[in-house]
């Protein structure tokens, strides 16, 4: 009996591609801003670091989430949920607190945030169903 | 397991990055103030501690404009100490600051600097940065509504109904074109004419700007010590305007230049009765229109000025000796030094044989037809006038270049003024220099440029005269030397009436003039008068306005003999369709000149020539009907516009030559030939041969 969540898997799968596009756009937009706008040096480093770290976290989060869901293991999903927090904060940083926020960034960040919220809800549901159907 | 550790590590770093960023979320505000602080501490040995602020700008999730608000309240504690160690302890202190306009609440954290040594706060900066919202540059009147000032809080909604528009503060604030929302920052929400936001198109505009400080100047602290002043001024040496050191310049040029000749621009020296040498000067006006100061006359520097004088109010004023009314006061005491080198250096005295007296002449209003005569002011009881009052003074200095002044004369134009108090008349003073060798100065012709016209110089015109000599028609140009007889337009006097004083049509000066002309209600006289007003002297003895044969010189240096350098003036008349049945014909009231010119010569020194003149003459709108002994008023309008018809230089060049290099069809025959199959192909042999040669050369 499988208790993996199809919805969770679909979302994670979608998110993996979406995030790829998101990261590429973010990097390109940062370059665009660096060229076009006055930037304090420190802010550039900071923002690039945030984006790169976000990439790492997001990769690990999606990987762990999918692995946990497919293998019906609670551990990776919990880890994935735990990683959602820094990932969420990083996206919020890009949405609100970085030096210049472009309109495209606003749109992309909101989509990413919505996905992450849905995934964390479904992640919790998933864990619940694991507990329900499997005895640990 | 590795994945877990890695992700944990990454997480940790990410948190650090995020949290450090939160602490420094207002980087430039701090920076800007710290800079001033650094300035202070470097300039003053005594330690200055600065500490300032945080604002909500970075963290605030409020809307766009309120996020631009930065409210630094600054406290500078400057402590005099002998470089003892200062430890600072920060005390964070949060307080709510309600902004007066109620736009947003921002939390201000003030970090106070406390020291272990004696704390003596010396300066306190005023609340430094003005929010763009608080700036309302059109609100000038206190407690009163300024018209069209939409940001004025004194104006009620009712008051604002009278406004036609809002005086914009847009120019005062830099606007970033990258922003998605362009708010003009100023208008408050509670006015009917309120905030307007432009929404820029495109996804790459800035939706939120967390670096509004780039629009703000660094707020500098006041300067207290001389040392700071010197340092600051030294750094900005190039920006500071400095006057010439005036202590030196005054006395230097006031000394009599011994053993030197006059040069262009050097002062002319004179001696008065007291045998003192002083620069020769004439009256002029500086502070008011009255004659209240004197100007030194400079050698070879033609000069003209006019100023107002009081009309004599009494009999005694009129006939008093040596007043400004009296012509003798302008030459009697004046003995000019012909050249400074003439005088003996030891004595510096102007004897009669060395120096020059000025000869007086009385002339007419145009300063011509002069007679050598002296007329003193005289009071005429019957008419209550003061006669022979000096109105124009013209000094004519004849010079011979380096030899200085040879001859000097002064021409006067005298008038009679009725004696009255509190009335003024105008005196004009003029200084002309002429070469002694040239006698006939009246017929002196002044070019308007050489060869092309110069801007502002009168357009030269003349009439073409056709004479029949021996059955052949001969054309010639009769050019008058006086610019007053060239193309002119009428001007209005003080009461708006057209005067005899006409303005020249000057090259590249577009002009428009209107004046009233009083014409008799008699067709012939009205016609003549209007024609004269429009065309000036060219209207004399002309029956058909199309046949005035007027020509304009193409070049500023007219050539009378070459008729090709003269351009005919094309005249077009427009009659008034609404003229009254009984109204006089051909009474013209408006003239418009269209003068087409073009540039010629090189780009470096372009010259201008006139290539066409078109005159449009309009019949008077007002119909003049013959009534005996009546007058009517018509309005004379003249306008001049210049049209530049220059064409750009020819920038087309010949096409590059086509190289038609073709190899003969059998060029590759030896390589492609398959005739001798038995032998190795010649190409192979050739390649081997070249390789062999190369190898041997390299060895």
Automatic annotation (TrEMBL), chain A:
<feature type="transmembrane region" description="Helical">
    <location>
        <begin position="44"/>
        <end position="64"/>
    </location>
</feature>
<dbReference type="InterPro" id="IPR019184">
    <property type="entry name" value="Uncharacterised_TM-17"/>
</dbReference>
<dbReference type="GO" id="GO:0016020">
    <property type="term" value="C:membrane"/>
</dbReference>
<dbReference type="Pfam" id="PF09799">
    <property type="entry name" value="Transmemb_17"/>
</dbReference>
<keyword id="KW-0472">Membrane</keyword>
<dbReference type="GO" id="GO:1905515">
    <property type="term" value="P:non-motile cilium assembly"/>
</dbReference>
<keyword id="KW-0812">Transmembrane</keyword>
<keyword id="KW-1133">Transmembrane helix</keyword>
<dbReference type="GO" id="GO:0035869">
    <property type="term" value="C:ciliary transition zone"/>
</dbReference>
<feature type="transmembrane region" description="Helical">
    <location>
        <begin position="108"/>
        <end position="131"/>
    </location>
</feature>
<feature type="transmembrane region" description="Helical">
    <location>
        <begin position="76"/>
        <end position="96"/>
    </location>
</feature>
<protein>
    <recommendedName>
        <fullName>Transmembrane protein 216</fullName>
    </recommendedName>
</protein>
<feature type="transmembrane region" description="Helical">
    <location>
        <begin position="12"/>
        <end position="32"/>
    </location>
</feature>
TrEMBL record, chain B:
<dbReference type="Pfam" id="PF25752">
    <property type="entry name" value="DUF1619_N"/>
</dbReference>
<feature type="domain" description="Tectonic-1-3">
    <location>
        <begin position="449"/>
        <end position="644"/>
    </location>
</feature>
<comment type="similarity">
    <text>Belongs to the tectonic family.</text>
</comment>
<dbReference type="InterPro" id="IPR057724">
    <property type="entry name" value="TCTN1-3_N"/>
</dbReference>
<dbReference type="InterPro" id="IPR011677">
    <property type="entry name" value="TCTN1-3_dom"/>
</dbReference>
<keyword id="KW-0970">Cilium biogenesis/degradation</keyword>
<feature type="signal peptide">
    <location>
        <begin position="1"/>
        <end position="18"/>
    </location>
</feature>
<keyword id="KW-0325">Glycoprotein</keyword>
<keyword id="KW-0732">Signal</keyword>
<feature type="compositionally biased region" description="Basic and acidic residues">
    <location>
        <begin position="85"/>
        <end position="98"/>
    </location>
</feature>
<dbReference type="GO" id="GO:0035869">
    <property type="term" value="C:ciliary transition zone"/>
</dbReference>
<feature type="region of interest" description="Disordered">
    <location>
        <begin position="85"/>
        <end position="104"/>
    </location>
</feature>
<feature type="domain" description="Tectonic-1-3">
    <location>
        <begin position="260"/>
        <end position="434"/>
    </location>
</feature>
<dbReference type="GO" id="GO:0060271">
    <property type="term" value="P:cilium assembly"/>
</dbReference>
<dbReference type="InterPro" id="IPR040354">
    <property type="entry name" value="TCTN1-3"/>
</dbReference>
<protein>
    <submittedName>
        <fullName>Uncharacterized protein</fullName>
    </submittedName>
</protein>
<feature type="domain" description="Tectonic-1-3 N-terminal">
    <location>
        <begin position="115"/>
        <end position="217"/>
    </location>
</feature>
<dbReference type="Pfam" id="PF07773">
    <property type="entry name" value="TCTN_DUF1619"/>
</dbReference>
């Amino acid at each position: 009996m499988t208790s993996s969540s199809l919805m969770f898997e679909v979302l994670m799968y979608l998110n993996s591609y979406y995030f790829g596009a998101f990261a590429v756009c973010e990097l390109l937009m940062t370059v665009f801003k660096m060229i076009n706008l006055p930037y304090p040096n420190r802010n550039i480093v900071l923002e690039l670091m945030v984006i790169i770290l976000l990439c790492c976290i997001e990769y690990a989060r999606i990987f762990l989430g999918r692995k946990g869901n497919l293998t019906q293991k609670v551990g990776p999903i919990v880890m994935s949920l735990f990683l959602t927090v820094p990932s969420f904060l990083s996206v919020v940083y890009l949405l609100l607190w970085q030096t210049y926020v472009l309109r495209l960034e606003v749109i992309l960040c909101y989509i990413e945030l919505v996905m992450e919220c849905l995934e964390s809800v479904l992640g919790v549901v998933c864990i619940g169903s694991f507990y329900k159907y499997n005895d640990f | 397991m590795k994945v877990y550790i890695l992700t944990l590590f990454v997480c940790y770093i990410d948190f650090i990055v995020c949290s450090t960023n939160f602490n420094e979320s207002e980087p430039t505000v701090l920076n800007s103030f710290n800079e001033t602080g650094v300035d202070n501490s470097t300039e003053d040995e005594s330690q200055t501690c600065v500490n300032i602020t945080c604002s909500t700008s970075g963290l605030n999730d409020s809307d766009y404009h309120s996020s631009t608000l930065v409210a630094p309240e600054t406290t500078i504690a400057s402590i005099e100490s002998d470089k003892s160690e200062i430890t600072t302890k920060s005390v964070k202190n949060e307080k709510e600051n309600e902004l007066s306009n109620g736009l947003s609440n921002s939390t201000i954290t003030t970090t106070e600097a406390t020291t272990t040594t004696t704390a003596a706060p010396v300066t306190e900066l005023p609340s430094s940065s003005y929010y763009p919202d608080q700036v309302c540059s059109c609100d000038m009147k206190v407690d009163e509504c300024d018209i069209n000032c939409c940001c004025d809080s004194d104006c009620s909604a009712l008051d604002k109904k009278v406004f036609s528009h809002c005086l914009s503060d847009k120019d005062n604030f830099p606007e970033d074109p990258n922003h998605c929302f362009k708010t003009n920052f100023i208008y408050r929400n509670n006015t009917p004419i309120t905030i307007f936001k432009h929404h820029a198109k495109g996804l790459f505009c800035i939706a939120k700007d967390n670096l509004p400080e780039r629009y703000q100047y660094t707020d500098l602290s006041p300067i207290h010590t001389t040392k700071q002043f010197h340092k600051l001024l030294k750094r900005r040496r190039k920006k500071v305007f400095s006057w010439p050191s005036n202590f030196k310049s005054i006395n230097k040029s006031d000394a009599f230049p011994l053993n030197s000749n006059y040069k262009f621009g050097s002062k002319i020296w004179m001696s008065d009765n007291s045998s003192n040498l002083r620069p020769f000067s004439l009256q002029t006006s500086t502070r008011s229109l009255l004659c209240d100061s004197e100007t030194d006359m400079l050698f070879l520097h033609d000069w003209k000025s006019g100023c107002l004088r009081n009309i004599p109010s009494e009999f005694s004023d009129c006939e008093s000796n040596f007043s400004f009314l009296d012509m003798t006061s302008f030459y009697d005491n004046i003995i000019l030094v012909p050249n400074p080198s003439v005088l003996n250096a030891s004595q510096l005295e102007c004897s009669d044989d060395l120096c020059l007296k000025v000869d007086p002449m009385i002339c007419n209003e145009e300063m011509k037809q002069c007679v050598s005569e002296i007329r003193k002011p005289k009071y005429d009881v019957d008419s209550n006038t003061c006669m022979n009052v000096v109105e124009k003074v013209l000094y004519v200095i004849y010079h011979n270049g380096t030899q200085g002044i040879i001859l000097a004369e002064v021409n006067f134009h005298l008038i009679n003024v009725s004696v009255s108090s509190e009335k003024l008349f105008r005196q004009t003073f003029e200084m002309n220099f002429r070469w002694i060798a040239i006698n006939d100065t009246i017929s002196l012709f002044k070019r308007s440029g050489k060869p092309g016209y110069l801007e502002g110089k009168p357009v030269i015109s003349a009439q073409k005269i056709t004479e029949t000599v021996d059955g052949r028609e001969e054309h010639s140009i009769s050019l008058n030397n006086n610019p007053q007889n060239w193309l002119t337009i009428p001007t209005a006097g003080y009461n708006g009436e057209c005067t005899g004083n006409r303005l020249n049509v000057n090259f590249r000066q577009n002009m428009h003039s209107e004046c009233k002309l009083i014409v008799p209600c008699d067709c012939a006289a009205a016609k003549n008068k209007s024609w004269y007003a429009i065309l000036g002297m060219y209207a004399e003895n002309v029956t058909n306005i199309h046949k005035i044969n007027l020509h304009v010189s193409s070049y500023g240096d007219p050539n009378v003999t070459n008729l090709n350098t003269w351009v005919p003036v094309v005249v077009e008349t427009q009659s008034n369709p609404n003229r009254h049945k009984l109204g006089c014909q051909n009474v013209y009231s408006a003239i418009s000149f269209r003068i087409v010119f073009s540039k010629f010569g090189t780009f470096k020194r372009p010259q201008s020539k006139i290539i066409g003149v078109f005159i449009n003459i309009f019949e008077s709108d007002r119909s003049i009907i013959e009534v005996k002994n009546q007058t009517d008023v018509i309005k004379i309008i003249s306008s001049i516009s210049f049209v530049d018809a220059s064409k750009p230089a020819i920038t087309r060049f010949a096409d590059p030559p086509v190289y038609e290099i073709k190899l003969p069809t059998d060029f590759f025959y030896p390589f492609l030939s398959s005739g001798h199959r038995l032998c190795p192909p010649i190409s192979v042999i050739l390649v081997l041969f070249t390789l062999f040669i190369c190898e041997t050369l390299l060895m």
